[in-house]
Amino acid sequence: MARASVASGEIELHPISADPDFERIADELYAARPDEFASARDEQVRKARADGRPELARELNKLRKPTQSAWLVNLLWRGQRDVMQQLFELAAELSRAQAGASGEELRGLTAQRRQLESALLRQAQALAAQSGVRVTDATAREAQETLAAALANPEVADEVRSGRLVKPASYAGFGVLPSGAAPTRAPTPAARSPGLADEKTAPPPTQAEDLATQEARRARERREAAEARLREARAALESAAGALAERKREVAAAQQRREDLGQHLDGLKEQLRKLEQEIAAVDEAQRATTRRRDEAEQHHAAAQRDVERAEQALKES
Q: Which of 21, 25, 82, 196 is the most buried (most CB within 10 A)?
């Protein structure tokens, strides 16, 4: 049987909620770009709490952000569901062909599968580009490995069909092999190796060969587990780099805002200085005007007294 593993070692299951809005909201969240997932989820959680729906808020809060490659597979399932179903059906036919040791049929089905996988990956890159996301070679490889794991493991296939894959899956073990992979068991007399010029019946494996095969399988599994951890570390690094870049942008924006406010403050200080100068000038002008008014009042009083004396003299004459 085939065994598939995600980066954490197990397939991550999603919470099941009785709330009728949960499925709709979850589908909308996993259709969004990975860098928009967290903020969109938190907004939905906030709305649910504000609407007095704490259970829905709790279930939505459990939803985890998908990696770039997992989002790519989710995107494929939403946009190319019929083709994905054809790929799953083709995997079943490949398994039957392997069990029946049909070399000719196996080669034909393998070629079809490679064509479908290549077409799906090209379509995934096109769909991602429409959402403004550039797919790196590493992300495309992870998506292809996840498709291979889904073809080999029904649990991974179910996770892919949910459209809410969170982490990439990788193939490890026996069963329907990913494109280009080689069988890990020596062929038995009932199964010949397809594609060889001279097909001969292999002898029964010895105990030493069994031990060597098991050791090789274990070494391969250890390597694949290490590669999975490396992919997870790289994904975490990419996420951390994105968060760091965002924080740097925020710091730069805050610094620019402070500079703008500082310049505005300098302008206000200059305006205040000019106003203080104008006030001082007005005060000086007011004092001068007040002095002239006082002098005019004194002259007026003196003139008034002269008039009164002249009138008195006229009366007495």
A: 25
